[in-house]
Amino acid sequence: MIADTVERTASGADSRDLHSVSGPSSADGARNAPSFLSLKNVNKAFGAFTALEGIDLDIQEGEFVCFLGPSGCGKSTLLRIIAGLEQQTAGTISHRDRDISGDSAAARHFGILFQSYALFPNLTVRENVAYGLHNQKLSADVIDRRVKELLQLVELTGSEQKYPRQLSGGQQQRVALARAIAPSPKLLLLDEPLSALDAKVRVYLREKIRELQKQLGLTTIMVTHDQEEALTMADRIVVMNQGRIDQVGAPIEIYKRPSTRFVANFVGKANFIGGNVSGTLIQIAQNTFPTMEGDKLSDGAIDICVRPEHIQLTSPGATSGGTLGRVEKVEFLGSFYRVAVSSDALSKTPIIIDLSAGTQNELSFQVGEAVRMIFSPQHFTYFAAEQNVERG
Ligand code: ATP
Questions:
Q1: pLDDT band for position 391 (50/70/90)?
Q2: How many angstroms is it from 243 CA to the middle of ligand 1?
Q3: Higher-confidence residue: 263 or 292?
Q4: Rounded CA separation 199/52 (Å)
Q5: 54 C-alpha to center of ligand 1: Å?
Q6: Residue 19 CB partners (closer than 8 Å, separation 6+)
Q7: Half-sphere exposure for 317 (CA within 13 Å, toward CB)
Q8: Which of 162, 288, 343, 377 is 20 to 30 Å from the Cα of 237, by its Cα?
């Protein structure tokens, strides 16, 4: 009954709120073509430890896909298997319907960029970028032109004769990127390429990589544990959890309609509030909400996930309705405030609410103050009930 509730809710939620979500444009036209890359039931065991289990995934030409998940969930192992640097224990990998599971890394012609730039310290920038081109038996002229073009693309024209030690971390990673794309790889694989860089350089390179990827139409998979990176860069995100895929979708879809509690908690902040369903009504504390069109829920206990920016906060005297609570904490986070409100009627842990700086400046909520929380059912996502949540 519980699984049925959640399953039916997920499909209902899609029809309710996701009609405005646009998928990757490159994938739209390619829906009937064979996938650019297809993984079927990929498994990986290291001795008795299962690192990956039942991985099914299709990637379309030109897509930018992020593997997102916490440390140890198996994202690098999956990328290494795609690269041919690691052999899966079971399952197949196909490129345009051709099984490449047995091909060596070199035979796959994929470009790889790791977190550590791994440039050759004794070679100049020019020689580093040209390195992969020499194996292609190109004339010196062609190599020269290609290197120039690539250095222009990564905005390093003029640094040809410098050595890696004369460059900043961000510049070195741009050289490594130019080197990875120099041989025109079929697929670009990026393993946490930005995590060793400071925040500002990371944001700049994030944009640069995405711009380049679009310009070249280069199908790309990037591993990251940084949700912001995945949300801002990817056409689609693959959220991984303990060796399995929990959800695949466009960033907005993953954020708005997480399909599991893990995804709800890992991508963005999530509040879980206890409620009870009766027919087309949901009771949360003293409030009754109608279910939205498309939400077909089974009667009984349910947990409701609400994002912090979807709860309105007012003074108790300002309106009626809503649910009363008490401010436990007010955190200033630059462009917004994060307020924690306790309410035994809703949850055993404080409800997190994000307020714009303007709202907090105007209403000036203080620790210890009584407040009213107002919910909107169009922002609810439903999950099977757990014991640790209070019911209305
Ligand atoms: P991180 O972000 O920390 O790199 P990850 O999600 O990329 O994490 P993987 O590096 O893919 O995770 O590792 C997945 C699991 O497999 C981990 O528990 C890791 O310890 C294990 N593992 C990876 N490589 C090996 C190996 N060669 N031998 C044994 N276990 C391994």
A1: low
A2: 10
A3: 263
A4: 31
A5: 17
A6: none
A7: 2
A8: 377
